[in-house]
């Protein structure tokens, strides 16, 4: 298991190194950069959608779902304030109030 962990760390480091080191003659074009700009929202959506909408393994879009209430509050606060601290704290507070 330790070998697998070390191998995964090396692969992660090397893939990041190829993109970040200035001496390597590798550059991403504008189309590639535009394509990669969608990766963070796609990954984050793939993480939060099952947590919010499938908390017990089945679809739950009822008002009694604390994950959904917390997510709605967090989205509203983020849209209104553009403040990550307020978004996090108020979203967590809403989640815990409806838990």
TrEMBL record:
Pfam family, one: AzlD
Keyword entries, A-Z: Membrane, Transmembrane, Transmembrane helix
InterPro entries for the chain: Brnchd-chn_aa_trnsp_AzlD
Lineage top rank: taxon: Bacteria
Residue stretches spanning the membrane: 36-55, 67-96
Name assigned to this protein: AzlD domain-containing protein
Source species: Pseudoalteromonas xiamenensis
Taxon lineage: Bacteria, Pseudomonadati, Pseudomonadota, Gammaproteobacteria, Alteromonadales
